[in-house]
Give the backbone structure.
Amino acid sequence: MATERYFDVVVVGGGAAGLGGALTLARARRSVLVVDAGEPRNAPAAGVHGYLGHDGLPPAELLSRGRAEVRGAGGEIVRGEVVGLRRRDTGEFEVSLADGSSVSAARLLVATGLVDELPEVPGLARRWGADVLHCPYCHGWEVRDEPIAVLATGPMAVHQALLWRQWSEDVTLLEHTAPGPDDAERERLAARGVAVVPGEVTGVEVTGDRLSGVRLADGRVVPCRALVVAPRFTARAEVLAGLGLEPVAQERGGAVLGSGVEPGAAGATRVPGVRVAGNVSDIAGQVVGSVAAGVQAAAALNAELVEADTERAVAAQRAEVRAYWEDRYGGGDRVWTGDPNATLVREVAELVPGSALDLGCGEGGDAVWLAARGWRVTAVDVSENAVARVAGAAAEAGVAGRVDGQRHDLAESFPEGEFDLVSAHFLHTWGGMPRERILRRAAEAVAPGGVLLVVGHQGPPPWDPEAHAEVHLPTAEEVLGSLELAPGRWEVLRCGPHEREQRAPDGAVVTRTDNAVKVRRVR
């Protein structure tokens, strides 16, 4: 059985909006598939107009160029019809095609366009896009100064007639099936020289493959070279029903012009990961606007994917760090000496025992020392094996009842409660741990009157100048600044470097520089 193919984005619709979005995604090095039903709305038109640099270009040529550009950037295009969209429990989307095949996608861009539902006048549909028109900005220049008739089918007819008057002095409003203009509207039409002809239109007159007029029910013929209509614009949105998205009525001036999917910013929909672009959501949009909408939606989808990629990378990196420490503490040998950190002993000896939080407790040297002096200690480490070693060390020292070992990845979770002492010794690790954010959270956990003690390396050990190259080792002043302590609420007791002796791997005793920040919460 063939494995279902997976894409970052599947674009449903291969028109201007879909190809514009697909090109943006392909150039962003996303895997993208365009499913093109091959039914472009503007196929009957002779040219695309109002598109800077492409004015008059045949629609088929524009799409051909677009498809070549998408493929040139690595995108794929298939001819087919999408018949179903479904969101899986995994969050991915299943895209079903009419040929029975299916693909998966992390995101969807739906650019299926719309259908122009034309007035039911015999012969009219055959002239659609040639000399039966609806948009003056798309076709007005091409019929400038020609006799133009406007077929009234709704309350926007007077507006249409006055708008088309910009392109020709010879404009006629055909009342057809719409209510006739009121007195104020007739005054406005007359002021602009727009004639009003009553009677229902029953057909079109064509001479030499050119529109020459329209025929009325009473047999009269009104001469014209262009006939303006107001189609009902119906979004091709049936495929979105499987995702719970339905088109809504689109109105202008109180008149319903059609239906479309309501878009948010950059084509966002109520379904996360699904965006729309082009005429499926903007029924009045022209080709240039549809391309722009596709580009904007695609850029937003790529931003979503970048965020998702980053979240996965962070999770994988955190898992790798956890695995490293689990492995390090999982062997039979002791990792550290078991003695408490000298700075902790020096800085905490005079404090009255209370509740303590030991962040990055390792094998529990600090936690056991504190517990033996009467502190109730919450000992935290990212490694389950380390927490188990702390429990063993506490039991061996007879202070198991005063040490609560907890596993926390401090980038994701933090122990609850407030503490009289919060200490973090050498909370350095590779892998981009958000140390500053963790230490700010540590400061929030200090009870009024309590102390925060942060001890770290000032630099690499003397025997290995390249050690910790991937980890920033801040100065005490940098640590203090990163805590962002509220003015007037904290007292700085210590902030600076200090030297201590340490045994090198070869057994030699060397001097190493560390730093310490000690602050008390006064209120």
Summary: The first strand starts at residue 5 and ends at 12.
